[in-house]
Amino acid sequence: MREDSILDSNPPLRCSCRRVNYLALLLAALSPIQLARLQYGGGGDWYNDPDALPNLAREISERTSILATEEQKVLTLMDREIENYPILYMTGHGKVSFSKAERERLREYLRSGGFLYADDDYGMDESFRAEIAEVFPNSELVELPYDHLIYHIFYDFANGPPQTHKHVEGPPKGFGLFDAGRLVIFYTVNSNPSDGWTVAHNNPPDVREHAFRMGINIVLYALLN
Q1: Which of 17-21, 33-37, 219-223 bottoms out in mean pLDDT, i.e. has the lowest?
Q2: pTM over 0.85
Q3: CA 68 vs CA 35, 52, 207: distances in Å
Q4: In whole angstroms, what is the distance from residue 206 CA to residue 92 CA?
Q5: I want to staple 73 with a disulfide (CB 3.0 to 4.6 A). Which of 36, 59, 81, 118 is the partner?
Q6: 54 near 70, Cβ under 8 Å?
């Protein structure tokens, strides 16, 4: 990690540098990673904030020893090349709908080492939970404790995910789904970090900073997990 890339003017958050440097050594010989956005059916705006992933990728490259290309990849669950992408990102305001084949493909992808990060931009919660219950009928999304590694792998979030945008009353929450003891889905609600990755919402610098920090944690966790 290049420590001079962390902005001293932002609220201090401790870095778990030893873990991340170890991960960077493992990835040093690999090609740059590319972040992938999931295109889904149902009418929800899966394409929301198209600059979010490219901006996050740039921050990953600048702050860590991992190189990330700033061009996002858009994939459906039925694309064969999905297995080449270790992390899928999805967001939106509306309904999420998977076909039976897509549910099976998502289950296969996650059980083969993939990771899904879903960020509710307000409006996808009910349908997303219903679909995930079909994908993993014997598991459920559970709120992650604040000491979970995803909140501390690079930056420390003592109180869970940041609240980039508050959509309803109450604190931001981060949920996870475990399969065979492995966290395969991370889902943020009333938090919306990805809204802080885009320039569209004109968020204050400190809000964007915490959103990027959470995003970096998510990607690094997915790569290490």
Answers
A1: 17-21
A2: yes
A3: 8, 13, 22
A4: 23
A5: 36
A6: yes
